[in-house]
């Protein structure tokens, strides 16, 4: 899945992706019997997180085009030779051994085939020269097919010959030598709080998809609840000269910890590295007031306003005309965005603005808000809770008061948590956010002074389930 690449040049603007077909209907297998009585998983990390840095990359091991920390574009030609010593095939068909002083000694190879020469190489290193000879093409052509310049146009017949020769010889680019030679790495980094939570696992999958598309390998670091560990992962990625870093969970970072993150990111940017952050919400009305301050990094957030608006339109299309909203504290940006989006969606459908009740943005808050609504009386046919946790709390109250859902009152939430299988909701675009974040980090915006970073909002998906009934 590729998310659109139109971006904005200043952090004061937000790129929102409109989606006219983001409504997905799922059939309920057991009505509301499947709605869990447990509180939704509020996140956090667990023993399933991977320790340290985990490397993943495309199966063919090819590198991608682009520049990285240290400058320059990585070229495959000769970058995979043996620096400082060892034996590598010379262009005249003989094995050349380079010692530390740069002297070259030649020994006549046994036989003319690249396979024979490689077999006689004590190190067993298959180089791009070997592939070019076996394929009967120039070194430059082999480099364009297999190296970072693979996006350049090469005829299909030549490409097939080179790729066949590479497979036959078992050729793999020497990424370490290439990085040493050109200062550019074929690695990108992802640092997340943990991988046990489905949200971050999906986000990581999006980063992996984007990296695979560009022929890059990914180093994944999980903080597992320890901010200092996340900072250490960033330092490791800087030492590895990773081409770009995606940092997730920045909206949950405390200010004292953020200063350490900011310092490490500044050191990474000083060597040419590029950074994109992923947050579950805009940190503040002014993004520069967020945990990382005015650090010039790109920011990817979910389009909560757009998702709530599309949910309102979907509910209106099912015949509902009167609504009540169970909202969290109004000072929370996430709450404001969802309430504003839902209200705008109803008004756009020609319906009146809903009644809004504020409470804590958790299961207990949902119970309290629903109690108050029932005590004061309501003619609403559908309740919208700004989080799945609040929706499940409201369900607890409705069940206790003998109000059947959805026959007497429909119910919708936001978040698509695992503990709410039959709840109509908005699914966060975690995978799309991961993809989009890496795209931004790898493809910088046109130069601007001062550069404040781009903010991109990625749309979620409306999922209609058994907690909402059709009226009329």
From TrEMBL:
Bias-annotated ranges (Low complexity): 50-66
UniProt cross-references to InterPro entries, sorted A to Z: HTH_LacI, LacI/GalR-like_sensor, Lambda_DNA-bd_dom_sf, Peripla_BP_I
Disordered, as annotated region: 1-122
UniProt KW keywords: DNA-binding, Transcription, Transcription regulation
Superkingdom of source: Bacteria
Molecular function via GO: DNA-binding transcription factor activity; transcription cis-regulatory region binding
Keyword Transcription: yes
Segments of skewed composition (Gly residues): 40-49
Composition bias, Basic and acidic residues: 12-27, 89-102
Domain annotation HTH lacI-type: ranges: 126-182
PANTHER family: LACI-RELATED TRANSCRIPTIONAL REPRESSOR, LACTOSE OPERON REPRESSOR
Official protein name in the record: LacI family transcriptional regulator
